[in-house]
Amino acid sequence: MRTFSKLCAGIVVMAITLYAQADSGESIVLDPTTGNYTITYGGDSTNLSQTVFVPATKIDPTIRSSFRLNERDVITYRYTVFNGATAKQAIIGIVLKQIANPIIGELPFPDGTFPNLIVEKAAYDAYNAAVKTSVASPLNWDGDITRRLSQVDWSPNTATYNTGGIHPGQTLSGFGFNSLDLPGISQSSWMNGRIEDNEIFGFPDDGPDESSPIFAQLNQLRDNDFIIRNTAVPMIAVPVPFDAATLLDRIRSQMFTWSGTQLINSAFATQLDRYMVAAANAYRSNQPKVGKEQIESVRKLLEHEHNYLDHDEEDHEDTAEHKAATRLTIDRLAARVLDFDLRYVLKRMEREHEHDHDEGDRRKEQERR
Amino acid sequence: MNMWRQKHRMTYWLRKLFVVFSLVASWNVQAVLLLDTSPSVLTWCTSIYSMADHFVCNFPTDFAAAQEAITLYNEWNVQLHIADPTVLVVDYTLLSCDGTGHCATCATFTQINQPTGHVCGVILPWAGLMSVCPVPKSHPEIPYIYYSYGNDCYRYIPDNPVLTVTFIGSNEVQPPNILPFSVVVKDQNGVVQPGTQVALTVDVQTLDVQSGANGVLNGEGGHLHTANRPKGGFACSAQYAPGSALPTCTLTMDGNGEAPFIFISTAVSGAHTITATCNNCTTATALVNVKIDNLITIPASSKYALSDSNGVIGAVPGKHTDNHYLASGAITELKDLANIYTAINPGAILYLNDASLVWGGLFDVDVVNSPWSRPHAGHQKGTSIDIRAANSGPNNQGSVPSTLFSRFIEEATKKGFRIGLHCKNSSDTNYCLSQPNNRHFHVDF
Ligand SMILES: [Zn+2]
Ligand SMILES: [Zn+2]
Description:
The complex is a heterodimer of chains A (369) and B (445). The longest helix of chain A has 37 residues, at 332-368. The termini of chain A are far apart. Chain A contains 8 helices and 15 strands. The model of chain A is unreliable at 1-23 and 112-119 (pLDDT under 50). Chain A has helices spanning 2-22, 121-134, 213-223, 244-256, 266-284, 288-305, 320-325, 332-368, and strands spanning 27-30, 37-42, 48-53, 61-69, 75-83, 91-96, 135-136, 141-146, 151-156, 171-179, 182-186, 190-193, 202-203, 227-228, 231-236. Chain A is of the alpha+beta class. Chain A is 38% helix and 22% strand. In chain A, the strands form 4 sheets. In chain A, strands 8-9-6-12-14 form a 5-stranded antiparallel sheet. Chain A folds into 2 domains: 1-11 and 55-203 and 224-237, Immunoglobulin-like, CATH 2.60.40; 239-369. Chain B folds into 3 domains: 3-156, no CATH class; 163-290, Immunoglobulin-like (Sandwich), CATH 2.60.40.10; 296-444, Muramoyl-pentapeptide Carboxypeptidase, domain 2, CATH 3.30.1380. In chain B, strand 3 (78-80) and strand 4 form a beta hairpin. The termini of chain B are far apart. At the A-B interface, strand 3, strand 6, helix 2, strand 13 and helix 3 of A face helix 3, helix 4 and strand 26 of B. Strand 13 (202-203) of chain A pairs parallel with strand 26 (418-422) of chain B, so a sheet runs across the interface. Bound molecules: zinc ion (ZN) (2 copies). One zinc ion (ZN) is lined by residues 223, 225, 319-320, 364, 367 of chain B.
């Protein structure tokens, strides 16, 4: 995945260089030694103006996702972030994206907006209080939920903001929350690093014109000023009342969002999908045993690719053993997510089955009376 | 000529005078170019008796043709002799209305707001009253009007055509942009007029007009200063070369009576009026509103301030006093940004400086030194706003303290905002830190 990000960065730089050649005078040029961009643009005076953009991407982040099923179908998500020793900035922003549904404890504020700030102040405060209790944060970090952007994010709190963060070589755990949704893989979660006060981006005048090409180019640079990492986040809503076939269809659609990326080989996805379709059909036609067999077939295929997929509490992706088991067919995190989701279906079906038995027993008892 | 005839002629002229006044008073006349090609009625006469004010044409050689002339051509005042239907009486004073062109002597008059023209008529045959006027062969679109008093018909024929210019194009454009147009010239009969030349000029509204007054509400675009206000210009064809706007255009209509042009707006929003004039044309205007649509004023809130102890933040009397307009989506985001700030600086609120003017477009904040030009560079689309940041200038009240710059920017960035520092008129390239005069946050939503 890291290779993929670097590839993306390469494309951006190429596009910017091309632009620099195309326009007279205005340019965005990357200094490879500092990693900073020098922006030259038509400013307020007749002369060109210049400013320096220091990216917040001088970090080397690894994020590990863990997810565990608890009682009452609650799934606990936890994240550990590591900043590589060669990083130049401390990680101060962790943003998990694509979390569409409310997480447990969060007030379902319709869209995260506050149409009338005066009237709704109480609602806003209640919302903030709920967020504080529903998002787990390490010491001296604050978590927040931004519904407008379907994200949960963390930063060092006010007390430690200027010195805190995950410094190069450091690891920090304790980020997380609970959800009723099954994990999928967010491919747009990101992290960024600290910009020092003397690196804050600004213009020595009013900046480039809003209609100018360099304004658009610069915005592209600023809007992508972070490092993206794959994360497992709640993305698949469990149907209420429970319906295994529908849930399997949702798991399948999640899997297909991985195709075309390095998360899964498309031939392998098709192979898995055949069994998952068969499982869904079996559940639809009330053949839970057949459904279970099909799901176990998928799990066997996954197990063949990666070891210890069902060790939900152990997320040591970097051990030599895990690396040795990594296949090109499916990314380890993707395999873990898929395996977890399928096990969830099996567990719920078992319980439904037991429930059916209980119901049956009760009915029989009533008949006997 | 007997006494009866003499008497008849007098009543005729009185009647005619009455008719002409009636026409002038009541007839909203469209102009037409008269092209009557019928031969003179006199060529049909075997003998002509010249009387004081009329001819008597005896025994027309082609009586049927002569009668047709009475019925159809009718630019002549011709009638059958009362006593002898084989004799035509031709009005002497109308003689030049003889089929060669204009009825130049019918009756010339000039009236304010009316084009110069002629009144031409026909006295219907006396042999029995006829209330139906003939349809003129030349320019039948100008009908006769029947006057029962004299059993006669008259019509008004303008000397020149009255042409109409029509603009074809949209009436709104975002600044700065181009708006393709064309003009079509037609006469009153809808006939296109190839070769006609049309001159174009453009003007812009400079007064803040209230609804219902003669102008467009907010048509001044929020600029209360008027000197040297740019008006936009033209490309006098369908082709547009950037930077080539002309203040006026003279267009020549093509074979379809049409000519394209392009209105080139400046970056300054406002209600623009394009005026088209040409010979024999009624002046035509096209209103073009150069504006960003649907900007709304930022609503009051306890989470941010639009005014400080000196009044509306950023307002400059006589220049721009209404400076807090945004697109509705940007207002929603602004409220989120205000919440972000309140979270990191409890009890404090954001002090909001310039957003956009009422119709967006160029916001020439430095009116004194550079009216009608940047800065601001942004603030044109209702998607950006300035927020006070700690500075050494006079606008420091309620500003974000410099100790919170980094935190505020990081929190805002995490929530998808594009925010940075701006310092006007600074030669400093070190992120505004050593040039705190005029320092402020600039947010692009
Ligand atoms: Zn102005
Ligand atoms: Zn600004």
